[in-house]
Amino acid sequence: QVQLLESGGGFVQPGGSLRLSCVASGTIFRINVMAWYRQAPGKQRELVAAITGDSPVYANSVKGRFTISRDNAKNTVYLQMNTLKPEDTAVYYCVSAVTHSNYSTDDYWGQGTQVTVSS
Questions:
Q1: Which of 18, 27, 57, 87 lies 20 to 30 A from 12 at CA?
Q2: How far is Cα 73 from Cα 49, in angstroms, rounded to an integer?
């Protein structure tokens, strides 16, 4: 079993910054992909950013403002969010694709952390 613990959400004014963190723990052989999704009220959940190795991908809406990174030694993924806009308000979820020691793979989701951007 794998647990994901997110932190770093909160309230910020437009133009501000936040840094989200997500630590994976449990029976992990290898973490393949780490990603952040978000879901705003009344909207579908969407991919914000993902990283495999050193290769990140971003949603068009956050390119140039958000940066995803990972620390493999700590099983941790980060999301640095700059120049935040009200439309970035959402619950942000961490997702990890994990390979276990028996080579089976599973996707795990965190509980979500609220990000609110408002003046």
A1: 57
A2: 20
* Rg of the chain (C-alpha set): 14
CB 113 within 8 A of CB 92: yes
With a CB cutoff of 8 Å and minimum separation 6, the contacts of 86 are 14, 117, 118, 119
Give the amino acid at 94. Answer: C
| Identity of the residue numbered 38 | R
Percent share of the chain, pLDDT over 90: 85
Amino acid symbol at 11: F
pLDDT score recorded for residue 16: 98
Provide the 10 A C-beta neighbour count for residue 40.
14
Least Cα distance to 95 among 43, 39, 18, 16 occurs for 39
CA-to-CA distance for 43 and 41, rounded, in angstroms? 6
CA nearest neighbour of 78 among 59, 92, 97: 92
Q: Kindly give the pairing relationship between strand 2-7 and strand 18-26.
A: antiparallel
Q: Is the pLDDT assigned to residue 54 strictly greater than 80?
A: no
